Amino acid sequence: MAIDLAVVPVAGRGTRLLPLTKSQPKEMLPVGRKPVVQYVVEELVRCGISRILFITGPGKTAIENHFDIDMELIQLLREKGQEELLAELAFEREDVEYFYTRQRRQLGLGHAVLCAEPVVGRQPFVVALGDSIIGLNAQSTVVRLMIEQFQARRAAAVVAFEEVPIEDVVHYGIAKPRDSSSEVFELDDLIEKPEVHEAPSTLAVAARYVFGPAIFDHLRRTPPGKGGEIQLTDAIRSLIAEGGKVLGVRLPPEERRFDIGNFESYFRAFVEFALADPQIGKQLRSHLTQLLH
Ligand code: G1P
How much is the pTM? Predict the structure, then answer.
């Protein structure tokens, strides 16, 4: 059965990006010309996803508005003959069905994914975190590869990983691989935001997952963990402990993850995407070069 459903959690408050995120969802922050979550959706569509379930929360209605078809705006641009601007709204017409459900209490990422269960039921699905872009301009097809691996190897879950500097392990779920030399590997364990000296590797969870429905059974039994939150990482750990096959897939080097969860990586992402802009990238490059000299 083809996997065509993705769950995109967007309920987090984004407190690491205050004051920017006080009344604006972090998933709607601009990176170059588009908001983060539009890149996420475009990446998923390219990987064969045609149904997207957002797990939203307080203050996130701008996301719903963004994916609506805005007939008034379309009409206005038509009347003014601004065809080139109309083309910017093409994403509204992607062949995707959108669903929204709310995480009514802020109990962590694991709990947010569990909120998807009544809609997802017993089918396999993708989870893509709404605050991470994979690859410059989201040109990643890693989710497609993850789905292939999930099906071909009858895995219980597949998780994307990226090598990070050792000092960054404290920000991510970190893999303990069974054999880490290959692009696809089996997981022995997974630890949420370990201290540097506890980290079993420098392979960090990179915001994309494929799950079979058993993850819900584990999430239901997962107690609060790191930071007092119900952690998705802990449910995956429990899946492995009960003999479930969990695979890791490394992001290819040209498909880096842009994490929009903190200012340093957000600023970097914005600059890189702006520099790659086909219309203004060149001028921006010479402006930056001047500034730096
Ligand atoms: C979450 C996960 C973590 C993962 C990260 C990826 O952390 O809990 O395992 O590595 O996303 O972006 P958060 O960013 O919500 O703190």
Answer: 0.94
